[in-house]
Amino acid sequence: MPSSLAEVPADTPADLQPLPATAEFGIYMSGRVVFPLGSEIGWTGILDPRRWDAVLSRYSIGGDAGGVITALKEWRKGVMIIFKETSVWSLTGFTGDLNTDLILVTDQAGCIAHGTVTSVGGDLIWLGEGAVHRLSEVQTDSIQLQRVPVSWPIPASMARINWQAARGQA
User: Is pLDDT at 115 greater than 60 in this prediction?
Assistant: First the structure.
């Protein structure tokens, strides 16, 4: 896969660019590669998962509110959960024609790094600043953050976490 514009074949349409080298991670969802761009997401085309339209294939996730995107995770029924530093968002309809609906799930809990998000049963569990959080679907199509972080009963274990290593900075 080409990693710079110099390596892009000459017959590539000018409006399609290689994936940006600044994207730290990405996920494969609905035939596309989705990756963070600060507080926006970008995605590739279904027919060419190595190229993206830098103008049309991007979507702002709450603007600068909540900081930058720290993690992405596909969840139930084609729902993408987007984690920012201090908030969590749900993006539905990320298939086919991309008729999407963005919903703020919470502005009370963020995620510190992409590698800390995991699926357990039908729930998502992740490491936030100072706590482990859990996202559940209480009723059909009703996403809800649990009121108390999962980690509250285990403060001694939480105190042993190397926060810099969890963020990938160590």
Answer: yes
